[in-house]
Amino acid sequence: MRNAFAKQITELAQKDPRVVLLSGDIGNRLFDEFKARCPDRFYNCGVAEANMVGVAAGLAMSGLRPVCYTITPFVTYRVMEQIRVDVCYHHQPVVIVGTGSGLSYASLGSTHHSCEEMGMLRLLPGLAVVAPADALEVRGALKAALRHPHPVYIRIGKKGEPVVHKSEPEFVIGKAITVREGSDACLLSAGTMLPVVLEAADRRAAAGHSTKVVSFHTIKPLDTALLSDVFSRFRLVATIEEHSVLGGLGGAVAEWLADQRGSQARLLRFGTADEFLHETCEQEHAREHFGLTAEAIAAKMMNDE
Amino acid sequence: MSATATDASAADLGRIAREIRFKLVEMSHAASTPHLGSAMSCVDILVAAYWRVLRLDTNKPADPARDRFILSKGHAASALYATLAKRGFFPASLLDTFAQHKSPLAEQPAPNCAPGVELATGSLGHGLPVGIGMAIAARIQHQDYRVFVCMSDGECNEGSVWEAAMFAPAQRLDRLCVIVDYNKWQATGRSNEIMHLPSLVEKWRAFGWSACEVDGHDIAALADAMRRTPDSSGKPVAIVAHTVKGKGVSFMEDDNNWHYRIPKPDEVAAARKELGLV
Hints:
The structure holds 2 protein chains of 2 kinds. By secondary structure, chain A is of the alpha/beta class.
């Protein structure tokens, strides 16, 4: 995903002289092409993220389109107030990209995990929160973000995530992408969980259950048209994300659902638990720890049907 | 863009500064707003900038070529508002609404709240990073405007200030200038005791700035120091302006109670007399 980001931002910067890339001392060699093509529009801001986000706001106020890029916790938790005041309060179209999101950097320990940041950022007025599913969605998300007149947060994984889409889907912020149709239950997947979610749907198919699968890539603003449709048609709707069950996609959908009249569908939320992960492990095992596997998702859903 | 300097004489500027100071006393009294001491301390910095240094056109407050001035110590917003009104950005009558219900002029400035206000401030440590972004934008867009950021000494407690202080010289932002309103007090005590600040000018110098100290109530000296931007060394400019909190009214000067105190009617009258405006 990060290579897709680097390629796409380089292409966009060549087309649009307003695009400026700010990095928090990360992406060794990743942006060599960008630096070669647009040497006056790449800034390594060092390990100083509060300054980086303020600088981005100042650039945006001057008519440029800055993109801040570093490891997720440092460009979200650490700079929450800069995002809130400098970017959101001033309605500046800054794009914030967190890399290695969720449990991507499981083995680095909880300092490098980000399972709460979508919940935090979702509370900021005017900020779109986007979690693309694969490298092709990253490209679409970045293009959409740089067209968007308001600030956007994009959480991406690291590298080597499976590519789900066959070609780049039309990516509209706030409009979820249906990946597979189905009739019994609906799975709403945020971010890089999508391959696992499709596998869970395969398992359900093998057991005779037809499952709709959606890449629900925008956590804010919610695609309420799609939610209204699936909650009226299906008995069971599940959210799946590499993020806490509190505050992220599951939290956002639960809040939305609480305001709806007469919905009969049951909502199941799959995500990380309200705890820090203390065990040393790779992403795959961290997902297992939190029940974020195709097997666990399919089993829990069948229990509930 | 109009010429940098107004044709006001030194005596005119002294009077303007005294009139602004009295306005601040009146505003604090009328609206029962705190931070009067902090506002009084930076008046001469504002007068030097707006009458002697900044390239601006009060009829075109959003001109892309204008020099930017960010009052990062947002708690002194009344001083910025009174300065902008005096300089002609908006009618002085707007100051009468300061901090009142539905006034555009809040106790600390909101985004685009009035012509000439560049940034919503109030949370400390934000003005310099944003100012750096504006300075980099000038370079990218081949503009030659300058960016001035006025901070308080208490504000220098914030880590983001020092992140920014390391970054600007690395980028050789020679069209950027910081002015620290060093009045030696912060909200609840001596700034030099709460944090280690006595070496403030050496700190800026060590961080790579072209740094100097001036009497923060000497308008001519302040203007000279600010006009060193852009600095021939290629470094950003830092001015440590030695000031007195509550400057201009004897019973407020260097008395930190005036961080929060509201002047009573007799104190307003006494201030008027002391400022020679009777």
